[in-house]
């Protein structure tokens, strides 16, 4: 079920009403029921994947809890059994994830080796947002393993953690320690939460329905046939794709976070105004934050602090004395993380290349950081506004070229398109921008929407949450901030030409 | 021992006032790369068996917290 | 109003109030949408009459809007025609005339037999039904119980028996742009058929006034206007056994219903274009129609020589009104109108096998059996001095007449052509139509005696306002070529040689001589309202027809367009005002088609003057037959 479907809104409204009418002790059950209903309606039998994942992590969590207790009791640090539990949870979950997402891709790769036999499976039931709830569930097991959280003994409560419905489709990825207490708390109706939640949902729908779905039309026109456009129009297509991706993804997250807030539950932030990133590393701390944090805690730290890496670090330091030797292991770990993020995005070489692109740039910037620092001090550059703006711009350029890789029809086409931008830009084609699927009115709406978005984000970057500012305005203005967005969503979003609302891009990731 | 710690920390992350800060993680002063670098250095310098399980904010928010962690993990 | 510059201290609005404002606004928007949809009612499902526009609503959804219409107007009808869009060419007027009944055409685009069954049930339950014509089209063997779109193809719950609440909620909260489109269309509505307004709400049939007025002649020209027929696509379709069974079940249900209620049921299988028919395997088609005969006897028009003539169709699945009229004549055994011999047969279970056998022999008729090429000569003035525009010397004119007679040509009149089209009455081997425009005195002085001498008949198109002007242009002082008088006209008509017809009363004005805004042709002035124009044209038609009738006793029903100019609106309006044949001035011959009134419109004419030698003229008229 899409977050933009009327079904979702009806379910949400019904769930919220029942939630606050139900006795406090039973409220978590309302959330559980709503989540299962959401999944059954939206994905049918795919709900079995959710139950499977919940069962696996429930059992693993209990087993780990028992082992942890034993360890505390006799001071035994037997690692093997605990590691096996984690490994089992990872294997079962990621094994299933791999099968669902990458089997056909792998089968294609293997097919020449197998004498052309195709082992691909067609008609796989692709569960909604499968990787989001699996990441979240595996995180829970690791947290129990690390003794950060106590294992959940009630399987239904754990199932609620796995299946909390606003975040099922595209995250954010929550931590058990943060989310579960909120889900299970016996909370009173808090008007502030509901208000902020509704505001965030409206904001998300505006981003998704008014900007992203419009931009998508131009993107599809250009990217559907990049060969018939010059480099400049292709670049415009990629630029619109950047807009589309951000508005689509962060809009969906806003809807999810806002929906959760209707129940008084605060989900982790997933975006922190990535436009204002000053480096690619900074970008990844502001873009899809919960995935980055997950990768940091469950991939980067374990790898970079593992025994083999410790040995590698020693060897590197002996071989390259000074800074270089010290950063080699962390760089390698960083690189691996971005490779995984790339692969996670999709079963395609483009995404692997995307991982390389990000990993390579971040690794390089770590390696070159000392050199930059010395240039900076020699040139007398200060951390002032213009310098910050320059860094933001250069980050934007890096991200922009990275998007060529993910959106072009093929990897080689992406490289060719970058070449075209410099060799055959054909700038005069930009004059016919109105023939790329969007009329002048739609282009104007996208431009105005992006302008408002940037202004709001600039405000929030400097002065904090705009909702806090807004609630101090006179009632008329506050009411206008309700009515105008609603009308905009209705007239410019829902009733938008004959274009059909496209699915959230991140839904199946 | 604390001086040695602060010296090592300052070497890894120049420009941070380790003696005074008490919310190094919570305030986002140290990032993941810094943490890994610090842990690697501490393992070497103090022969402390600090593992992934120890990477909790409360263990790295201040120099004192790190000192306590080192003592727990030594030997 | 000045807003406080500084933020109001504390919360200006409590969060609870904010939530109330939010919910209130959402509710208001939802109610507004519902109210808007209710009032505009683009699908014709609600009872309101404020913005009622039945023909628009029928276009958007005929299933709902026609039932809504009948709920108010059922007393005006006692007989119904039901079926998919090919049913639309069974004219309620024609059927009503034959049956002595008041027919309503319930055509619903894409109707399947389940729709028909449910509708028949509703009609017999709620309206007076004496006759029911049920059209079973070939597509009914392919589709059954379909709903391509829930808004445009749905029927009212009282017809289908489905639950009313979800039905009305669907329309109450549908995309308000449907209603907005209706408002926009209201602003653009015209008398002519528009894409958003294709029904005639009073008869229920498609409003084919433009299609019925379009000039149709040679096949080559038809292929240019309808390229689909020139290069008919190859495809293969199969009937669907589930659909066939469903269709037959529903036909049986309608049959039983009619028997029970004492309704006369006429099942008709509409003509199918031959190339479309060929998309299906022959045995499947035969199987379908044979099994239909097991259920009910029916009139089969599906396959005949008509199926092979593209001019009888306006697209691959839709035949023209004139074909529907032929079917009605056949069904009532009316021998007067032209109907091809092999068109239509009454099929019963026992005759079905033999009928199918006979259908296999269906083939196109030879062109000359039902079409005629007819050249028309257009003269103006006869004068001692000819010129190369409108004047010819009596000597040359006489030479031309002599040559025609010697070559074996026989003159035919517009009435002869009409008789050919309507009743299939034969034309001579070498027909020619002789016409004179404007009504000059020289026609009376020179042409009439010459025509009489050579045994020809001719038609003179007079401009009503200049009849009898021998010196001056109307009541001005401007000189004019002399025109004959009404008395002279009567004299010529009574001789049987000349027919006097219309060149309009006063829509062929000579601009330099007019004091007001001139009407140089029959076309609408730029900026003139459609209603004003139609009124002016209707008045002109009435005026000239009255003058001709009172002066000569002739019924004026043929019009030569001034300067040969006309358009759809003009042609439609002229047809509505008593005219049934029109001429333009385009160079070329004409193809007249039996059973097709459109072949009588906008006939081409060869311009005759002093520059046309006898040989040239013979060449023109002879290439006509070819």
What structural keywords apply?
A: mainly alpha; 3 domains; globular; disordered C terminus; B: 75 residues; Non-ribosomal Peptide Synthetase Peptidyl Carrier Protein, Chain A; 55% helix
Mean pLDDT over the full residue set of chain C? 92
Beta-strand percentage range of chain C: 5-15%
Task: Quickly give the structural class of chain B.
Answer: mainly alpha
Per DSSP E runs of 2 or more residues, the count of β-strands of chain B stands at: 0
What string gives the helices and strands of chain B in order?
HHHH
Uncertain stretches of chain C: 1-9
What is the CATH first-level class name of chain B?
Mainly Alpha
Largest sheet of chain C: 6 strands, mixed
Which class best fits the helix and strand makeup of chain C? alpha/beta
Amount of beta strand of chain B: under 5%
Rounded to an integer in angstroms, the radius of gyration calculated over CA atoms of chain C is 30 Å
| Main interface: chain pair and counts | A-C, 20 and 22 residues
The dominant shape of chain C is globular
Number of structurally distinct domains of chain C: 2
Largest sheet of chain B: none
Overall description:
The complex is a heterotrimer of chains A (509), B (75) and C (626). Chain A is mostly helical and 509 residues long. Chain A has 19 helices and no strands. Chain A has 3 domains: 6-189, no CATH class; 190-267 and 426-509, no CATH class; 276-407, no CATH class. Chain A has helices spanning 6-21, 27-43, 47-74, 80-110, 130-145, 155-163, 176-184, 191-224, 231-261, 280-286, 289-304, 307-319, 323-345, 349-379, 385-407, 411-423, 440-463, 466-470, 475-494. Helix content of chain B is 55%, strand content 0%. Chain B is an all-alpha fold and 75 residues long. Chain C is an alpha/beta fold. Chain C is 41% helix and 12% strand. In chain C, the strands form 6 sheets. A 6-stranded mixed sheet of chain C has the order 2-1-3-4-5-8, sandwiched between helices. In chain C, strands 10, 13, 14, 15, 16 and 20 form a 6-stranded parallel sheet that branches. The longest helix of chain C is centred in the first third of the chain and has 26 residues, at 15-40. At the A-C interface, helix 8 and helix 19 of A face helix 1 of C.
């Amino acid at each position: 079920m899409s977050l933009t479907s009327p079904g979702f809104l009806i379910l949400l409204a019904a769930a919220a009403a029942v939630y606050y009418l139900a006795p406090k002790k039973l409220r978590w059950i309302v959330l559980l029921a709503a989540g299962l209903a959401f999944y059954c309606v939206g994905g049918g039998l795919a709900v079995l994947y959710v139950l499977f994942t919940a069962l696996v992590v429930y059992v693993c969590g209990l087993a780990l809890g028992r082992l942890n207790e034993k360890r505390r009791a006799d001071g035994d640090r037997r690692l093997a059994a605990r590691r096996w539990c984690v490994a089992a949870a990872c294997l079962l979950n990621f094994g299933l994830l791999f099968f669902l997402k990458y089997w056909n891709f792998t089968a294609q790769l293997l097919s020449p080796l197998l004498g052309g036999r195709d082992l691909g499976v067609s008609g796989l039931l692709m569960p909604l947002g499968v990787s989001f709830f699996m990441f979240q569930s595996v995180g829970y097991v690791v947290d129990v393993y690390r003794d950060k959280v106590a294992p959940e003994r009630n399987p239904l409560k754990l199932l609620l953690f796995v299946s909390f419905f606003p975040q099922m489709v595209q995250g954010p990825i929550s931590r058990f320690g943060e989310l579960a207490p909120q889900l299970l708390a016996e909370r009173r109706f808090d008007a502030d939460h509901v208000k902020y939640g509704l505001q965030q949902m409206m904001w998300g729908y505006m981003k998704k329905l008014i900007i992203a779905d419009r931009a998508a039309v131009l993107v599809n026109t250009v990217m559907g046939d990049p060969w018939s456009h010059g480099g400049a129009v292709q670049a415009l297509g990629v630029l619109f794709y950047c807009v589309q991706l951000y508005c689509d993804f962060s809009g969906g997250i806003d809807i999810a976070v806002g929906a959760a807030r209707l129940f008084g539950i605060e989900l982790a932030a997933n975006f922190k105004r990535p436009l204002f990133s000053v480096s690619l590393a900074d970008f990844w701390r502001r873009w899809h934050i919960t995935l980055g944090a997950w990768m940091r805690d469950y991939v980067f730290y374990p790898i970079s602090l593992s025994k083999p890496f410790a040995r590698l670090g020693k060897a590197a330091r002996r071989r390259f004395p000074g800074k270089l030797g010290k950063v080699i292991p962390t760089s390698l770990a960083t690189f691996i993380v971005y490779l995984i993020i790339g692969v996670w995005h999709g079963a395609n070489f483009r995404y692997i290349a995307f991982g390389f692109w990000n990993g390579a740039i971040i690794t390089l910037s770590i390696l070159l950081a000392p050199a930059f620092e010395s240039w900076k001090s020699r040139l007398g550059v200060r951390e002032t506004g213009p310098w910050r703006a320059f860094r933001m711009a250069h980050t934007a350029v890096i991200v922009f070229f990275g998007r060529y890789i993910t959106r072009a029809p093929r990897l080689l086409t992406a490289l060719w398109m970058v070449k075209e931008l410099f060799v055959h830009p054909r700038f005069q084609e930009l004059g016919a921008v109105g023939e790329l699927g969007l009329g002048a009115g739609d282009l104007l709406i996208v431009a105005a929407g992006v302008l408002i978005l940037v202004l709001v984000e600039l405000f929030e970057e400097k002065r904090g949450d705009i909702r806090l500012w807004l609630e101090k305005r006179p009632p008329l203005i506050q009411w206008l901030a309700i009515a105008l967005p609603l009308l905009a969503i209705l007239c410019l979003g829902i009733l938008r030409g004959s274009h059909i609302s496209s699915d959230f891009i991140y839904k199946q990731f | 021992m604390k001086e040695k710690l602060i010296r090592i920390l300052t070497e890894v992350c120049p420009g941070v006032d380790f003696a005074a800060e008490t919310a190094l993680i919570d305030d986002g002063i140290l990032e993941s790369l810094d943490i890994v670098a610090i842990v690697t250095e501490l393992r070497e310098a103090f022969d402390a068996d600090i593992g992934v399980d120890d990477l909790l904010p409360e263990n790295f928010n201040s120099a004192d917290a790190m000192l306590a962690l080192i003592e727990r993990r030594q030997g | 109003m000045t807003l406080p510059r500084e933020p109001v201290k504390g919360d200006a609005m409590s969060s609870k109030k904010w939530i109330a404002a939010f919910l209130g606004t959402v509710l208001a928007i939802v109610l507004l949408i519902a109210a808007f949809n209710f009032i505009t009612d683009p699908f014709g499902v609600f009872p309101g009459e404020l913005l009622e526009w039945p023909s628009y609503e029928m276009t958007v959804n005929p299933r709902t809007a026609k039932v809504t219409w009948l709920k108010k107007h059922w007393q005006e009808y006692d007989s119904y025609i039901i079926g998919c869009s090919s049913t639309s060419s069974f004219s309620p007027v024609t059927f009503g005339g034959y049956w002595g009944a008041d027919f309503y055409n319930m055509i619903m685009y894409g109707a399947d037999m389940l729709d028909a069954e449910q509708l028949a049930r509703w009609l017999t339950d709620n309206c007076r039904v004496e006759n029911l014509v049920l059209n079973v089209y070939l597509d009914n063997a392919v589709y059954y119980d379909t709903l391509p779109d829930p808004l445009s193809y749905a029927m009212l719950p009282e017809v289908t028996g489905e639950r009313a609440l979800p039905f009305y909620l669907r329309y109450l909260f549908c995309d308000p742009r449907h209603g907005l489109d209706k408002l926009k269309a209201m602003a653009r509505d015209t008398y002519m058929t528009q894409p958003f307004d294709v029904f005639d709400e009073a008869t229920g049939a498609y409003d084919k006034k433009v299609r019925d007025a379009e000039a149709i002649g040679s096949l080559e020209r038809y292929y240019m206007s309808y390229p689909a027929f020139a290069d008919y696509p190859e495809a293969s379709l199969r009937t669907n056994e589930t659909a066939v069974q469903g269709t037959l079940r529903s036909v049986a249900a309608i049959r039983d219903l009619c028997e029970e209620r004492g309704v006369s049921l006429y099942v008709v299988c509409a003509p199918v274009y031959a190339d479309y028919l060929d998309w299906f395997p022959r045995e499947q088609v035969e199987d379908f129609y044979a099994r239909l005969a097991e259920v009910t006897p029916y009139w089969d028009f599906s396959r005949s020589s008509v199926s092979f003539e593209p001019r009888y169709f306006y697209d691959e699945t839709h035949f023209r009104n004139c074909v529907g009229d032929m079917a009605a004549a056949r069904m009532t055994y009316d021998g007067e109108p032209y109907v091809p011999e092999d068109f239509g047969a009454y099929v019963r279970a026992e005759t079905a096998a033999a009928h199918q056998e006979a259908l296999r022999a269906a083939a196109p008729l030879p062109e000359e059996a039902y079409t005629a090429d007819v050249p028309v000569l257009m003269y103006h003035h006869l004068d001692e001095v000819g010129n190369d525009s409108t004047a010819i010397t009596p000597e040359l004119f006489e030479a031309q007449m002599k040559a025609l007679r010697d070559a074996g040509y026989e003159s035919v009149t517009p009435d002869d052509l009409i008789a050919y089209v309507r009743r299939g009455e034969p034309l001579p081997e070498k027909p020619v139509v002789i016409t004179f425009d404007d009504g000059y005195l020289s026609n009376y002085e020179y042409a009439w005696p010459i025509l009489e001498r050579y045994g020809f008949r001719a038609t003179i198109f007079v401009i009503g306002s200049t009849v009898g002007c021998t010196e001056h242009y109307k009541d001005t002082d401007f000189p004019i070529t002399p025109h004959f008088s009404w008395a002279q006209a009567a004299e010529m008509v009574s001789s049987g040689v000349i027919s006097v017809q219309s060149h309009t009363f006063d829509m062929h004005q000579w601009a330099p001589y007019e004091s007001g805004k001139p009407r140089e042709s029959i076309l609408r002035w730029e900026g003139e309202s459609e209603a004003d124009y139609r009124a002016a044209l209707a008045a002109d038609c009435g005026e000239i027809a009255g003058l001709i009738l009172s002066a000569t006793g002739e019924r004026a029903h043929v019009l030569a367009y001034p300067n040969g100019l006309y358009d759809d609106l003009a042609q439609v309006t002229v047809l509505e005002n008593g005219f049934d044949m029109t001429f333009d001035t385009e160079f070329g011959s004409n193809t007249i088609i039996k059973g097709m009134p459109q072949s009588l419109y906008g006939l081409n004419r060869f311009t005759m003057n002093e520059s046309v030698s006898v040989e040239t003229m013979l060449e023109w008229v002879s290439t006509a037959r070819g």
